[in-house]
Automatic annotation (TrEMBL):
InterPro entries per the UniProt record, alphabetical: Atg22-like, ATG22/LtaA_families, MFS_dom, MFS_trans_sf
CC terms in the record's Gene Ontology section: plasma membrane
Pfam families: ATG22 (PF11700)
Domain of life: Bacteria
Stated name of the protein: MFS transporter
Regions that span the bilayer: 12-34, 54-76, 83-101, 107-127, 148-169, 181-201, 236-261, 267-290, 302-320, 326-348, 360-379, 391-410
Alphabetically ordered keywords of this record: Membrane, Transmembrane, Transmembrane helix, Transport
Subcellular location: Cell membrane
Topology of this chain in the membrane: Multi-pass membrane protein
Length: 444
């Protein structure tokens, strides 16, 4: 792929923008800030990790229940951008508000974190669904992977600025407390996220939609009911979602709880921040590599590779003892976390009926979010029962294995099947595709 259109580039830049939240709030600075606040309040390491897991579970449950309903409404003309803007605004405002929460108020921090996560994850439901509006099926793997690659590269800049401020504050080079330095990181995240989202708002528009009709909400529920009623017509979609439910559970849990896990192992905050920074740098080229390799070997085969690497991660995590071990683990994760997410997004986008993209990405969200409930709960309960966080991470291996097995039964996408057909010099008549019109009607 030699160039990207203005729409493709603007869409990808939202990955660049929101990845600051992913690394600073979800993975790095906020979990450490929260762990420190909980420790000062007398909460044990295992309990504070469990409470963070429970909070993530509650947040994802709320959004999972809203996803398909809001997605169905957003399929109407002009609604997709409005829903995106709403969740984007909630995310930006609540992230900036973290600056004003006293550091000793660990419970209040978790409550506000819930709002930031709702805004962030909610905007991604509609952002992902815009993929079908800004590119064609043959370019989706590369565009999606390039978005994740840009995200990793972009996230390193605010992250590097943030950890530099925190480290300089810790060494007394800057006349700031560590608490104030961490809060500056939250402010930097909100500003970065908002600033680089501007191209998306200017150039990305909804092209596939259902025409508006009276009683939008009521009719949206009816359309959602029709989809569920004719679920057998979408067998490939829901079989993929079932596989996705399991393997993305482990991916999301490892990403969101990695710093809390590292802290429980006794790894210093400074070391964790540096490791996470390097992980972002390493993940960027690997995300792009997954996109390129998917063009050669198909997206499905590259998903197999990513899941297998995560199985190795779970096994290795069980024996983790030193900072060097955590470095090795982080680099293993870096090779595949962007690729597996990018290809899952593009693989699903190729399967969905375009005029129902938001509705189906709502289901994509609900499966991903319900999976994110199971993983953190599993880690939290296991950590409390065993008193050892490593046991919780190791238990995630079962989810990856189930996801791998289910993925084998998912039919290939139209683009992958065509590539395979061309490689084997077979006729297109040998491949059975669903029929889709280019207007607002889909034929099962």
């Amino acid at each position: 792929m030699k160039y990207f259109s203005k729409e493709e580039s603007s869409w990808m830049y939202y990955d660049w923008a929101n990845s600051a939240y992913s690394i600073i709030i979800t993975t790095a600075v906020f979990p450490l800030f929260y762990k420190s606040a909980a420790m000062k309040a007398g909460v044990s390491a295992a309990d504070s990790t469990a409470y963070l897991g429970y909070t993530i579970a509650i947040t994802t449950f709320i959004l999972a229940m809203l996803g398909p309903i809001l997605g169905t409404i957003a399929d109407y003309r002009g609604m997709k951008k409005k829903f995106f803007a709403f969740f984007f605004a909630v995310g930006i405002a609540s992230t900036a508000s973290l600056v004003f929460i006293p550091s000793e108020q660990w419970l209040l921090l978790l409550i506000l974190y819930t709002l930031t996560a709702l805004g962030f994850s909610g905007s991604l439901v509609f952002y992902d669904a815009f993929l079908i509006d800004i590119t064609n099926e043959e370019r989706m793997n590369n565009v999606s992977a390039r978005g994740f690659g840009l995200g990793y590269i972009g996230s390193t800049i605010p992250f590097l600025i943030s950890i530099a401020i925190i480290i300089l504050a810790q060494t007394k080079t800057l006349p700031l407390s560590t608490v104030t330095a961490s809060k500056l990181a939250f402010l930097i995240t909100a500003v970065w996220w908002g600033l680089f989202s501007i191209p998306f708002f200017k150039h990305v528009h909804q092209k596939y939609y259902v025409e508006r009709e009276p009683r939008i909400v009521r009719n949206s529920f009816k359309r959602l009911g029709q989809t569920l009623k004719h679920i057998r017509s979408y067998r490939a979609l829901f079989l993929f979602l079932l596989a996705y439910f399991f393997y993305i559970d482990g991916v999301g849990t490892i990403i969101s709880m990695s710093t809390a896990y590292g802290s429980d192992l006794g790894i210093s905050s400074t070391s964790l921040l540096i490791i996470l920074f390097v992980t972002q740098v390493v993940a960027a080229p690997f995300a792009l590599l997954y996109g390129r390799l998917a063009e050669k070997f198909t997206g499905k085969k590259m998903l197999y590779v990513g899941i297998f690497i995560y199985i190795i991660v779970c096994i290795y995590a069980y024996f983790l003892k030193t900072t060097l071990d955590f470095w090795i683990l982080a680099m293993l994760v870096a090779t595949s976390q962007g690729g597996i997410q990018a290809l899952s997004r593009s693989y699903f986008a190729k399967l969905v009926p375009k005029q129902k993209a938001n509705e189906f990405f709502g289901f994509y969200n609900i499966f991903g979010k319900f999976a994110s409930i199971l993983g953190p709960l599993l880690v939290g309960v296991t950590a409390q029962m065993s008193g050892n966080s490593s046991s919780g991470v190791f238990s995630l291996i079962l989810l990856f294995i189930i996801g791998l097995i289910l993925l084998k039964f998912v039919p290939e996408t139209r683009a992958d099947a065509l590539d395979r057909a061309n490689d084997k010099n077979v006729g297109q008549s040998d491949i059975n595709f669903p029929i889709m019109t280019h207007n607002n009607q889909d034929i099962p």
